[in-house]
Automatic annotation (TrEMBL):
Region (Disordered): 1-48
Protein name according to UniProt: Uncharacterized protein
Domain of life: Eukaryota
Species: Vitis vinifera
Biased segments, Basic residues type: 21-32
Comp. bias (Basic and acidic residues): 1-20, 33-48
Amino acid sequence: MGRGGWVERGEGDSGGEQREKKKKKRVKKKRAKGGDDAVEEKEKEKEKQELVCLYPFTSSSSATQRKIKQQYDQLVKCHGSKGLTLAQVGQFANCLIEARNELQHKSEVIQRKFTITKALLFKADRSSFDRLRQQIYKLEMEQKRLEEDAFVYNWLQQQLKLSPAYKKMLEISACMELKAKSGELTEGTDSTDTEFSDISFEELLAQEKKDSFWQKNGKPRSCSG
């Protein structure tokens, strides 16, 4: 009996050790999986950044992105034919300003609706609870689309500010404003405006023969690192 009892206890101890080993293996496997997930997430983020560097637009169903894209594609086309002017760069800058104002307005409207709907949901009865929950879901989807549009706007705005053509446009604008304030802007205004609209983009960028900002398939300077 004593020996049999010892054998039973030994088998029990052995079973406990096996369970402990299996548990440790599961923990290690789980940790390894978590590490793999983190690596995969980083790879996806890297791919997303590379994709953005090539072409920033994310949705064809967004009216805001379609409007910006139309202007952007025109700039790409003009740059390809070496006929891009400062006036066109200025138009694109104004297009981005309009997009920014539109996004800010949409954001305010969504936030206001979200606040009101959440307050109604807090006091809602069963008959209106599902309807209000659906409204909140739709607002969340609108907010997500708005964030995508804002991402595209922010990227383009950042790249535009790095463009030598944009910097030159600001210099000319500041110079004209200074002349106007000092009273020196006279009959020469017409000739200055003509120079502003007709000057070639390539002439302004002689020192930078490859301006990748306006190229769909080229990586902008800020993304080359």
